[in-house]
Amino acid sequence: MIPTIILAVCVMLALAGVFAVLLGWANVRWHVDVPAKLQHLMDAMPGANCGGCGYVGCHEYAEAVFHDGAPPDKCPVGGSAVAERIAEIMGIEHVAGVPSRPVVLCGADFDARLKRPEYRGEPTCAAAVMVAGVQGCTFGCLGFSDCVVACKFDAIHIVNGLAVVDYEKCVGCGACVRACPRNIIQMVPFQADAMTVVACSNLDPGKVVRSVCTVGCIGCGICAKLDDIFTVADNNASIDYDRYQADTDLSTSIEKCPRKIIRYAGK
Predict the structure, then answer these.
(1) Which tens digit of pLDDT belongs to each residue from 96-110?
(2) Residue 221's closest CA among 209, 210, 235?
(3) What's the predicted TM-score (pTM) here?
(4) Residue 197: CB atoms within 10 Å
(5) Hey, what domains does the chain have and what are their CATH numbers?
(6) How far is the C-alpha of 159 from the C-alpha of 36, rounded, in Å?
(7) I need a labelling partner for 150 at 20 to 30 A (CA). Which of 2, 57, 64, 179 fits?
């Protein structure tokens, strides 16, 4: 028995030595030299690999900057610090922009929904959106946490059936936007820590909205009459964020909205 064990150990050690030599040779044979500047770019990346930059991961974004001249401010996780470092490495000027953050364009939690049929299918938004009549509003948040699962930063949660963004944790990667099958989560340029949003995406006539929800936009147009930054189209109000400034005051529209669906989003 003992000689057999010793033989087995010797064989394993010999195989380990052979593989070590082969791996060392392969490392030398197929070694690819990485340009110093590209290596500096890769080192500057946060390593989150969230895809918020529009590339598969941080390595791919670094290569896009190095080879294709991609903008230095595409990393939502690293923000201005990473953008400035990338610009420094590439020897270009960086002008700080406005960060984008997601807003949930639905304000109806479970209590605000007037029609709540029981759903027994797969508990994901991607599955539920294929089922007719899963809830009264065909534009509202389904609340099955697809956005929560997609977020790597624990920055969005389902609260009483409605997706709610934690802006203290959110980095603006956009994963929740891509995960929402109803497209009710959208990226907005945050000119200020808190932004005014119309938290509704319903395009149905006001009568239909009232029948399914206590807070949905009915397209009354009061907000547009008070401030031309609002536009009402297809029975739904929206804000022109290209004109929105940090000091924009829409408090009167918030106060006068009969459905109280114009709200603040942010810190």
Answers:
(1) 778 899 999 999 999
(2) 235
(3) 0.79
(4) 22
(5) 36-90 (1.10.15.40), 100-266 (3.30.70.20)
(6) 47
(7) 64
